[in-house]
Amino acid sequence: MAKTSCWKHDEYTFNRQKPLGRYIVDFYCKPLKLVIEIDGVYHFEEEQKVKDNERQKLLEEMGLYFLRFSEQQVRKDMDIVLKEIGNYIAEFKERHSISQQNVSANSKYVQ
Predict the structure, then answer these.
(1) pTM of the shown model
(2) What SS3 state is found at 105?
(3) CATH number of the domain that 35 lies in?
């Protein structure tokens, strides 16, 4: 997953090393508003954790969602990583479906 320029999961394409504002994220899927970060060893150093948290907070304020995995998880437990991503996609679709239903229901009353 970490060596491709883009990656597909279900019908969604994730771009690798995607610039977002002044940051570059590991993977990004625009329709899902999802950032996936694969954290190497240096991300567990205290100074880097603080920088990562600040960066994530700023991007979340832009309406983006994050999933973080360690490099070790990706290498050893890819099935679990893919399952977590699949869970996010299912939850996103459910939220989107509910909001679309609410828009449709509201528009019926407006007419």
Answers:
(1) 0.76
(2) helix
(3) 3.40.960.10
